[in-house]
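It is worth pausing here to work through a concrete case rather than discussing structure prediction in the abstract. The textbook approach is simple: state the sequence, then state the predicted structure, then interpret. We follow exactly that order.
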Amino acid sequence: MQPTNERLLIGIRQALDSLDQAGLPAEASATLNHLRLAVGELTLREDAGFTEAQDARAQDLMDRAIALVQRHGLALAAPAGQSRTERLASVTTLLIAHEDADPDVKAWLADLVDWENALYARRQPTPPVPGEDRGDANLFTAETIGAYLSARFPDRAPVAVENMRRLSGGFSKTTVLFDAVYADGGRDELVIRADPLQGLLFLEAAHVENEFPALRAVYNAGLPVSEPLWLEADETRMGRRFLVSRKGPGRNIGSRVDMDDPFSEALLGDFMQRLVQIHNTPVRPDDPDVAASHLASLARLKTVRDVVEVQIDQWRKGIAGFALPPSPLRNRTLEWLARNIPDNDEAPSLLHGDYGLHNILIEDDRISCILDWESVTMGDPADELAWLADGLRAQIEPKKVIGLYEEISGRRITQERLRYFAVYNALRFMAVCPRALDLFQADARVGVSALDLGLRFTFFGTAELNARIAAAEEMKARVPAEAD
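Step two, the predicted structure:
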């Protein structure tokens, strides 16, 4: 691309910014926002001054790394054709074992994180607008769903589909809400949740074969979830594997980080009470629904520490399986997490995995339905609370969230564990965001929401990484001292 294209791209972005989106259909407005984001990224790549500055910082980091490697008597292989970023990622893994004893290594790692974050910080921070997957429109239509239901329930055919609408499905699933109207006069409000075209996440419940039995297990345990009806594992029937459930009652009041209505004390209390109920739900490996899901292997592990070790390994293997571009920042985070798992010999708890305002419905100031169990897992309640408190911090003080949970549950959630999982949460963005970009560029059917996720949210997850690691290490150092 010629350098003069930078001026052209800036002009295009200014033209997009000047467009009046008032009155536009939601889909058109979303497309304009995604185009603006993409042009902003291309403009960044044309910025020669920024690129030169990043290259100079990378060379300085490499020079310092070589000196540190030599100081500690390490061997740094440099395969032919390996990029500087790949070399920095490799040396990160080598040096991190020495960060506790060598302050120069710790300083180098912090500077490395800042270097990679400088790229993510440049990306345009405009508000996200949900979009639909480009490959879904022909798969789940009123006609195709009606034909499928008519074949499944021939004694109630023909089945008509009314009031159909799509949701973004949390970036990983296609979610379709509709009314099924049967020939005998019956009517059901139903929801289809379908596997994505390609895997954005490597969490097991991202696949409906695992989400469906897990959803059935929590429904049978009495949690307020949509009743799961059946799993369609034959992808030839509708082009995807999917599950069908009843539509949950109530309305949504916000996103993970924002809310539309005031958060009353009564609702906050019920919100936390339901979270405690999730964490107190027994998960038995011999339960048929648990045994049919990914939860069984985790439920057999004896301690929270055992589960976290397994989960860190899952992230490591999942990232390697995605063949993502090299990221020294990501390597630094993975190695730190593996070396700093808190000692916790409590039995693992059931975790929703993405508990927040965006995944609840309410009626009469009470939770009526908990949605989207695609991240359901086992582990430390502190993991869920760190994620929740971070999402709610613009609305509610984290201390209040943790304190209310401890009061209701009778559990003590230590700051050491909370700080550890604050770092752990950053890893989610480091894996999912570049994966979303890869999918968008590799497959034209993947929706613009993947582009939006990849460009917009990396920095959201990584900007505070150095501060989070420092806070976690400070808290970990206090634990032995306080015990003495």
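Step three, interpretation. The first helix runs from residue 5 to 18. The chain has a mean pLDDT of 86.
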